[in-house]
Amino acid sequence: MYRTTIRWRRRGAVLRAISAIDMALWDIKGKIFSVPISSLLGGKKKKIPVYASSGYYCGLEAKDDLEFIRNDCISIKEKGFKDYKLRVGSSNFKNDLKRVEVARETLGDEINIFLDANNGWDILTTISFCREVRQLKVGWLEEPILHDNLSGLKKIVENVDIPIAVGELESTRWGFKI
User: Fold this and answer.
1) In a shared domain, residues 39 and 59
2) How far apart are CA 9 and CA 160, in angstroms?
3) What is the model's pTM?
């Protein structure tokens, strides 16, 4: 399937359709042998670390948004999570900074904070933001700019202390080799 789709590009909907068929075939094989797919793929772990992925934008006014983040963090603590991923990347730089400040203040130092900008910024905004939140002990910042802007990502990595996470939108083994 992959080889025959070269004229339709090897990304997006075509690749997702191929992936859906691939997953269905693995599911069928797992059912035939009565084993979890993870076993077929060589998986051995019983437990894996997880984080709470939350802190979305809800279209609220700034003060209500910050109260939403505070309540979200309280809920995360009550559920026993040790890691929290918060959304940033809006056009309101100052409010994004406040979101991280409120999260750190509410969660304390015992819970890690990760950030996800969902490709929302440019290079300079990302560098400025990272410098502003440096003292808030952020674990990593995910996809601050478009994932395929490799030269931009390199510039960011060379100029900030916070690790930059990318790859969510990448696909195929060849894409990950870069």
Assistant:
1) no
2) 35
3) 0.81
